């Protein structure tokens, strides 16, 4: 296994491909740190799960930030939803926004589930995306309507539980990771994990059911090429 010198990986014992693969495995699939450690060990790569965690924090954050900056403009219909997370014995709400194609726009963990929390999410979305949506789709939680009236009064708002399956489904990867980690330990941990996970998930959100096999393989190869460019190394064979 060889790699071209890359200053990002200077001083690290393992080649860039190994680090890139470990980060990809952890954030792409619902795997624990120990599972990634074992998968690498099966390939003759001996690292501790703590090393995988440190790689994820350092390199995963850089990769996610770059992917977020490079992401194309998303759809103008936003779907918002919130789900309850039990963190440290307390109830928190995970607020998430996705576009009409299921790409995650942003996620925010808050202790509140009221208009103030909804307003904070909308303001964060406007600041990050720099544009208002054409349509906002939510369930019937009244907090959305109150927040929308103040932050984007001219935007069409559709409130109907059946229309919001796209946002509700976007919580599934977080639920799977929550079970794998035997619950999250803190709100900060959830927010940090999602800030890395979601841009990576968006890169590999290829909508297989909407493509032919040949087209799917083409866009998948393009996603791997983008990963190699952004991560600074291809995935290990």
Automatic annotation (TrEMBL):
The keyword DNA-binding applies. It comes from Solidesulfovibrio aerotolerans. Transmembrane segments: none annotated. GO terms for molecular function: DNA binding. One of its GO terms (biological process) is transposition. It comes from the Bacteria. Residues 149-182 are annotated as: Disordered. This is IS6 family transposase. Residues 173-182 have a biased composition (Basic residues).
């Amino acid at each position: 296994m060889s790699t071209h010198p890359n200053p990002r990986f200077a001083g690290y014992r393992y080649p860039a491909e190994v680090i890139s693969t470990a980060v990809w495995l952890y954030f792409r699939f619902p795997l624990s740190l120990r599972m990634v450690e074992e998968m690498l060990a099966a390939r003759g790569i001996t690292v501790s799960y703590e090393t995988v965690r440190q790689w994820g924090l350092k390199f995963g954050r850089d990769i996610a930030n770059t992917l977020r900056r490079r992401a194309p403009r998303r759809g103008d219909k936003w779907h918002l939803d919130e789900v309850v997370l039990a963190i440290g014995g307390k109830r928190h709400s995970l607020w998430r926004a996705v576009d009409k194609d299921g790409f995650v726009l942003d996620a925010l963990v808050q202790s509140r589930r009221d208009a103030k929390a909804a307003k904070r999410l909308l303001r964060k979305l406007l600041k990050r995306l720099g544009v208002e949506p054409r349509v906002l789709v939510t369930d019937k939680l009244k907090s959305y309507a109150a927040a929308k009236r103040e932050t984007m009064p001219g935007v069409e708002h559709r409130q109907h539980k059946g229309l919001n399956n796209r946002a509700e489904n976007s919580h599934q990867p977080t639920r799977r990771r929550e079970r794998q980690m035997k619950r999250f330990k803190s709100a900060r941990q959830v927010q940090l994990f999602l800030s890395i996970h979601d841009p990576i998930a968006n890169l590999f959100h290829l909508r297989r059911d909407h493509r032919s096999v040949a087209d799917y393989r083409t866009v998948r190869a393009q996603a791997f090429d983008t990963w190699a460019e952004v991560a600074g190394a291809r995935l290990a064979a």
